[in-house]
């Protein structure tokens, strides 16, 4: 027994030491778990290089223009179109489509197409007397259609490591590395803020500049992205760029704004308007939940052209109905405040067609937590390949809406549980319609690139097909959706 005693002594010593250190280990482990819990459950974990997003176009643009933009030089392709095609084909052979992140080459156009126009806006936007022929404030219209700014500002943001969409889309600096080419020309600002002849001349210069690029010649523009979000913008020359991917507010089936064969869903992308009213967040929604006493609300221009003629008919039908507020819209901050307050105090918000099938009022309603009632038979919606609008809006045909008493009876028949579900979904969906800088995951910029990714395989198909089809062939795919009342067969691409 005495000979075994030394072997027991170390064990006893170790056990005693462990016993003394056990409380310290438990305390340390508990502290570590608390720290980890606080970090991962915090609604805003500490981030060194992640500024709060700006949702205001004017605020964001003002900050953007004050930054230094000594942008890294994108390398133009100096050789022939054939050599560029070979280089792109070599790069493409290494991956399948769609693949993320998308690789976008941003053209570095002369400042007169980009920064000069942005500076022109920021120095004149306080001029509230600048109105269109129908009385709409010019600068508010520009803000509504400012998708060209939000996408471009995100793409060129530095450093790349700070961008939140870098897993979805990245900027490349060599044309041969690109999946797509972005044209940063501010078509809406130039249309509204330049003299008519000056604007037309600038459009022609932009057309000449872009179409002279080797990448454009290689694909005839099929892999180029052109923001033309206001239906009046770029109108005089866009027929020469109809192969490009257009960023649009809608398809406009009336033919007043886009000619047949210029726009179609297979090629182009519908993007939401920037809302005119402030976002009603969760705190705001809770505050106004008990105040939504108006059944149906509409405030805006009561008489519109083309497809928007239904507005005046709806006004006549709804006039004097109980629980319904229909008002003529007014410009300025007072008009915005009245619209915002009315939407936040209403269960349903009427969204009829404007001059085109779409209207900014739809997106005003969504960010206000007011259930949209869409009366626009030809409307195409943003991101419908991703979002199901039946979960947040009601769709009513024009013929039904104009029947005496039909619309009010329909809205009154909707149960409280249905209303609550629609409102819950609106609160979840609103993030998809808030442009911001920096761009946020699942925001409209993110969904735009995801939708374009879905088109990329088809874009590549038609580029290659156009390169090899005999020009005299009668079977060249025109990629045009014909009007239903014609006898010409429909041809899609």
From TrEMBL:
Localization in the cell: Golgi apparatus membrane
Keywords: Glycosyltransferase, Golgi apparatus, Membrane, Signal-anchor, Transferase, Transmembrane, Transmembrane helix
Record InterPro entries: Exostosin, Exostosin_GT47
GO CC annotation, single: Golgi membrane
Protein name: OLC1v1021001C1
Topology relative to the membrane: Single-pass type II membrane protein
Chain ranges passing through the membrane: 21-40
Primary location recorded for the protein, binned into one broad class: Golgi
Family (UniProt): Belongs to the glycosyltransferase 47 family.
Organism: Oldenlandia corymbosa var. corymbosa
PANTHER family cross-referenced by the UniProt entry: EXOSTOSIN FAMILY PROTEIN, EXOSTOSIN HEPARAN SULFATE GLYCOSYLTRANSFERASE -RELATED
Domain Exostosin GT47 per the UniProt entry, residue ranges: 101-409
Coiled-coil residues: none
GO molecular function, one term: glycosyltransferase activity
Pfam families on file: Exostosin_GT47
Domain of life: Eukaryota
